[in-house]
Specification:
mainly alpha; elongated
């Protein structure tokens, strides 16, 4: 990895967020067609709580193309940022696109469930989070009840006589 970029990432990790952001913005200005730089720039804005400023950088990074292991994080960052800005429909679209491209990325589904909750799609949100829990947990007792949890995951509003 380029020395300047590694320095910026180190600054961010050490909590020197303003400095990291300023340096990353400058780096993006030098090479605006670098998707990875755009992604890192978005991340520095997000770290500062400047979600509105992060959005165009996430969008540009995705548009320019990223390696799959970075793209999944860019989708998560953009979707989560849209959600925190109250742009729930945009967040839902991004998460659905990301999940279709990365169906094994269970962490995406957790953020998708939060978005569904925000949209009032509570049943779908619970179904998503319960199924994600079943796929990711190692908790013995949850595993013991996995068939029941799976069965009820999409029937939460149903009652039986």
């Amino acid at each position: 990895m380029e020395k300047r970029l590694q320095h910026i990432i180190t600054l961010r990790e050490k909590g020197r967020l303003e400095e990291a952001n300023q340096l990353m913005v400058a780096l993006v200005k030098e090479d605006p067609e670098n998707g990875f730089y755009q992604f890192q720039c978005a991340w520095t804005y997000d770290s500062l709580g400047k979600e509105k400023e992060a959005v165009p950088h996430y969008e540009k990074a995705i548009q320019l193309g990223l390696k799959p292991e970075i793209l999944v994080d860019a989708y998560l960052g953009l979707g989560s940022t849209y959600r925190t800005l109250g742009q729930y429909e945009q967040a839902k679209c991004i998460f659905e696109q990301a999940i279709s491209e990365f169906p094994e990325a269970e962490h995406l589904k957790v953020f998708y469930a939060m978005t569904l909750y925000n949209l009032g799609e509570h049943s779908k949100a619970m179904e998503t989070i319960l199924n994600t829990l079943l796929l990711t947990t190692n908790h013995k007792e949850i595993k013991d009840y996995s068939k029941a949890i799976k069965f009820y995951s999409d029937k939460l509003d149903q009652t039986w006589d």
